[in-house]
Amino acid sequence: MFIISRFKSRFLRKMSCFSQVINPITGENTWQEREDDYDYHQEVANAGFGDMLHDWERNQKYFAALRKTIGEMRSAGREVHVLDIGTGTGILSMMALEAGADTVTACEAFLPMANCAAKILEANGAGDKVRLIRKRSTEILIGEDMPRKANLLVAELLDTELIGEGAISIYNHAHDELLTEDALCIPARARCYAQVAQTPLAAQWNSLKTLPNLDGEALLRPPEQLKACQGEAALHDVQLSQLPPSSFRPLTDPVEIFQFDFQRKAPREKQREQLLRLQSKQPGAAEVVFYWWDIHLDDGGDILLSCAPYWAHPDIKELASKGKDLPLANVVPWRDHWMQAIYYIPKPLQLLEAGQAFHLSCHHDEYSLWFDARAEKPAKAVRRHTCSCDLHMTYSRSRIGQMNQSPRNKRYLRYLEESLEAGQSRVLVLGNGCLLGLASSALGAASVKLHEPHRFSRRLLESIVKHNELKNVQFVDKLEEVEASQLASLTHIFAEPYFLNAILPWDNFYFGSLLLKIKDKLSSGVKISPCSARIYALPVEFLDLHKIRAPIGSCEGFDLRLFDEMVERSAEQAVSLVEAQPLWEYPCRALAPPQQVLSVDFSKFSEEMHLKGSIELKHPGSCNGVALWVDWQLTDDGSPRSIVSSGPSEPVTPGEFVQWDMFVRQGVHFPRTTKEAISSLDWSTDFRPLLGELNFSFKPKKP
Ligand SMILES: C[S@@+](CC[C@H](N)C(=O)[O-])C[C@H]1O[C@@H](n2cnc3c(N)ncnc32)[C@H](O)[C@@H]1O
């Protein structure tokens, strides 16, 4: 989606400036020289325009609705004057023109995009036929910017939540000021759906569970304030179809909760609530609401586009028979610009038997939705809830899930149980929200120092220390403040490692940078865990994810290469060669076994490394991505049980779909696509730890 809020008109003046950036690996503030249009390039490159224009179903259905509506208006003897709000590349305006509109006015608020639209319209022979207004629609004046009101509005201003990009106000203003009394709109209407479900997997992303020891006895219990917290109401947008079927139990069928009539002349309400009395299909805890929407593009309701997950998709039978070689979850049209959402119910409601009735209250304001489920009908409107316990406001959903991730926690706890000596060990824990480090206190360590400079994370851990009556824990703000004698007496240094500034898995190498600060003061026998880390690369064939960076070329017969060029120019300046993505949401097949591309020993962290190699592809396919992740080695005993991986959760077999850890984002590099087959991938890694630089390059090689 295009984001206009941070648009700066200064992008046209090309100057460079220095801006302060925290290097996640060194933790240092560094000054980076950047062209002062850097923000603009980031905006353009990361806006995901490509994905939207690769959404063939969206494009085809908008075009079909324009043809149908304009055809019907003309048959009825009406002139057709189209307004395209948020024209982007100008695509919908060009469609309207080709469908026979008398006049087309396009407006675009994001100036670089509007300038690009002007060039695209020109290149497609529509430069003098579409009136382009470089303004927000709410600033348009009839008589000044447009000679007359429009009688057909086409716009694509929707997001995963439907209304998150401000559609309610934009439509209200358009009907008040810019559209005739009898104006039609494409899309004409939207319907929003909710399905109540129990899902221990998603619940794990929303609340902190008790941390058990290896025998299953409680080691750390969450304090009352965490149990009482209602969590954040904000949506959790996910590719819902990719949730493993075994990870959730639907408690209701999908139900329609709101309708938005974009054509209605009366204003669309900025706030609404809907109370539904539902019956559970089976016993379970109402923990979450799955949410999606569909749109009728035309007034007659013939052209429907649904964002439903596969199990609720209206065309699933037809799609499944057409896409026999795809997993069922992937037969529905793919898009990343509109996903589905999970909303967490503030207090899960236990439904003890099938048929039990309960009340689902659904709310929206101008930009967002929230939900609640209760046994009794609520007496008054349920207010949007927010985090009151520090957990949700400090940590991402994937990190909260990771804190609860049992197989992973067990590996760390096994190490701690085997390595700590009760009443003897003195542990320094590095990392944010390191509950496992805190567990070393519950496991009997003589003293535990937690380096936790983050205010809210520290407050959270302090409450856990208090609730669990841990006596020997001390918090440390700055490592420099720890006395040399205390550092010398440490027996263990422990990390997961996890740091709040980390985006890519190896950003957590900050652990190594912290170690360097204290290395000379440590005793020679101190045990450091993890002792090393290995980065692996895996060439893959994505079913869809590569589209977010793939050029469009032509879309429904319109030439959008000028748009591709604009995105490419921005991507060169603003997009890093490896980006973080939660790969469990984006199926891909492995094309080779994973290969190690870097190994870092934390006791020698300052060593620079420059490595090269080649990965031979073992399975035919188009190598449209390289996945990268870190395996943390807790000890050097060589046991697979001492490895905690942020990559695949099952062994990788070339030619098969990769199962990814669902609680971290992996790194992805999108190679320049080539139509020719490649036989191998040459790679090189450059690691300069003291500068915090870790760069990869991948070059496809032809047979
Ligand atoms: C999702 S894109 C759609 C682009 C294009 N219509 C398409 O379908 O490919 C939405 C565009 O609307 C623009 N936009 C959002 N609100 C707007 C407004 N009120 N007036 C003008 N442009 C707006 C954004 O800058 C963005 O370029």
UniProtKB/TrEMBL annotation:
Its EC number is 2.1.1.-. InterPro entries: Arg_MeTrfase, MeTrfase_PRMT7, PRMT_dom, SAM-dependent_MTases_sf. CDD domains: AdoMet_MTases. Residues 249-372, 532-663 form the Protein arginine N-methyltransferase domain. GO terms for molecular function: histone methyltransferase activity; protein-arginine N-methyltransferase activity. Keywords: Methyltransferase, Repeat, S-adenosyl-L-methionine, Transferase. GO terms for biological process: methylation. Gene3D superfamilies: Hnrnp arginine n-methyltransferase1 (2.70.160.11), Vaccinia Virus protein VP39 (3.40.50.150). Belongs to the class I-like SAM-binding methyltransferase superfamily. Protein arginine N-methyltransferase family. PRMT7 subfamily. Arginine methyltransferase that can both catalyze the formation of omega-N monomethylarginine (MMA) and symmetrical dimethylarginine (sDMA). Essential arginine methyltransferase that can both catalyze the formation of omega-N monomethylarginine (MMA) and symmetrical dimethylarginine (sDMA). Specifically mediates the symmetrical dimethylation of arginine residues in the small nuclear ribonucleoproteins SmD1 and SmD3. This is Protein arginine N-methyltransferase. The lineage of its organism: Eukaryota, Metazoa, Ecdysozoa, Arthropoda, Hexapoda. The gene is Art7.
